[in-house]
Amino acid sequence: MSGWIETLQDNGWARVTRSDKQASLKSVIAYIKPSRIEYRFLRPCSQSEARPNSLSAQFGRGLLPLHTDNVTDSIPPRYLLLAAPPTRTTKTLVADPLRCPQLRLSDARQALFQLRAPGLIASVRFLSETRSKRYIRFNQQVMVPKNTAAHAVCSALKEMLNWADVVDWEDTRLLIIDNHRVVHGRDNVNFGEESYVRRYTIW
Q1: Which of 36, 60, 181, 196 could cross-link 203 (Cys pair, CB 3.0–4.6 Å)?
Q2: β-strand 112-117 against 120-125: which pairing, if any?
Q3: Mean pLDDT by 10 residues, the chain (203 residues)
Q4: DSSP 97
Q5: Could you give the CA distance from residue 23 to residue 100 in angstroms, rounded to a whole number?
Q6: DSSP 8-65
Q7: 14 exposed, middle or buried (CB, 10 Å; 0-12, 13-18, 19+)?
Q8: CB 60, CB 46: distance < 8 Å
């Protein structure tokens, strides 16, 4: 078994280094066996340049808080694959909220939010659990806390920025994120930084 697969299973995220010539984007996607893939080319942008209702529209080139992607989907996509050039100096942040010492599992399970997006208002849970699936959902831009447990989740995820794992792109070719298990964010964009990220969203 490839090292990145074991790490992904253990931690909910893994990176492929630039020295690893065996794990390619194609081989990673083949292992995941997706039913659907969406591709987006991302570059640093100001608040005025960003897509409406996106985190970048609120934070621009500043620190992007920890979140999961596609929270408005009935079941969010399972994986995110990120690729960036070695010249990208802005770091990516990743963390497992269910391992956060400041977050009680009972709060994670009870946290209820109101999801507010164009054409959509719904109640959603931070942690959804069924017999076959367990996944988190969090984006402070469109999710408003509805109970005390939800406020506890927001406080814990804000605190998590202090101990999130930091991914340096100088030696990272691919970053694989389990969007059902971990949250991710981005450090402040360094002055003059224009290098891109290629994002593959995978169901």
Answers
A1: 36
A2: antiparallel
A3: 89 96 93 97 90 87 95 96 94 96 96 94 96 93 97 96 95 97 94 86 98
A4: G
A5: 30
A6: HHHHSEEEEETT--S--HHHHHHHH--S-EEEEEE----TTTSPTTSHHHHHTTSPEE
A7: buried
A8: yes
Neighbours of 89 (CB within 10 A): 15
pLDDT on residue 135: 97
Q: For residue 139, what are its two tokens?
A: 């984006």
Q: What is the pLDDT of residue 25?
A: 94
191: helix, strand or coil: coil
CA angle 77, 81, 84 (to 5 degrees): 145
Please state, in angstroms and as integers, the Cα–Cα distance from residue 201 to each residue in 36, 53, 119, 192, following that order. Answer: 8, 18, 22, 27
What is the predicted pLDDT for the residue at 190? 78
pTM above threshold 0.85: yes
Which DSSP string do the residues of 140-184 spell out, in sequence order? TTTEEE-SHHHHHHHHHHHHHTTT-EEE-TTSEEEEEEETTT-EE
Q: Are 175 and 82 in contact (CB under 8 A)?
A: yes
Quick one: CA torsion of 126, 143, 103, 59, rounded to 10 degrees? 130
